[in-house]
Amino acid sequence: NNPNLTAAQKAQRLHLLEEVEIRLAYRYGLKDRLQLPGQPSQVRFTALGDVTQAMLDAAYDKIVALDNSPEEFQALLSREFWQDYVTQKYRARFESQGRPYQEALAALHERFSDGSLTASAYDAQAKDLQARLVIEDAALIDALTRQEIAERLLPREPLQTLTDPAERPAFALALSEAQAIGFNGKQYFTTSMPDAGDGQHYLLRVQSPEQSVRSGQQWDCGQA
Length: 224
Hints:
One of its GO terms (molecular function) is ubiquitin-protein transferase activity. This protein has six helices and four strands; from the N terminus they run ααααααββββ.
């Protein structure tokens, strides 16, 4: 309603507002199913983006199809909201990493102020320090994102016991008690495994296809 804006400026602002509403509608509409962090708990006027439930479902299916893919990982790294989430959650890590660069910049400024460093040299060295910090911050975001993904793949529900503990050997664990998870296109089993008795190894009881659940072999799964 700004009378100082031209018709073209008003149309441009309306277009930008619609883009924001659409992005917000998708983020809010998919936050629970995709477990998106840092999203608003409630929004208003998302209907203005004309984002329907069918569109949300289609977007969800497309995202799930890319689950654990390199494309998904890079897309996540490029999202500003995710970068903000990681840097806020691990603020101390980023501050610690950036401290040497800030000190180096302060030292450069002192040398420039007392005339021992020319303006062009100061500008070049300052830009180099800033570029190196950007690279290190990006690498830290990458590492912390992988850590966040790995933590979210861990089971959160109690494991279901399908075999009678009294009918299996001591220090053995039935495969049916493990939680199957998928990561990078492979299947893994996670659980709390008992010590084999020697303080070094665990045993996992895995049934073969032709055996029943209660008649399995004991496999040495390596050192603790």
